[in-house]
Amino acid sequence: TLAVDATPEDQRPQQFEHAQKLASWTTARCLAIGIGWIYYVTGRLSDASRCLAVGQTMFRSTTDSVHRAYCELLLGAVARARADDSEMVKKALATMLRASKGLNEHPLFRLRAGYEIAVAHVHAGDLVNAARAIAEMKSSLSLSGSHAGGRSLRWTSQVAILESRLLRTRNDFTGAQEAAQRAYVAAERAQQSTLVTEALIVMAEAELEVGSSSGLDHALARLSQARFLSRENPKTGAVCTLHIARVHVRRHRFEEARYEF
Question: Residue 207 in contact with residue 219, Cβ under 8 Å?
Answer without folding.
Answer: yes
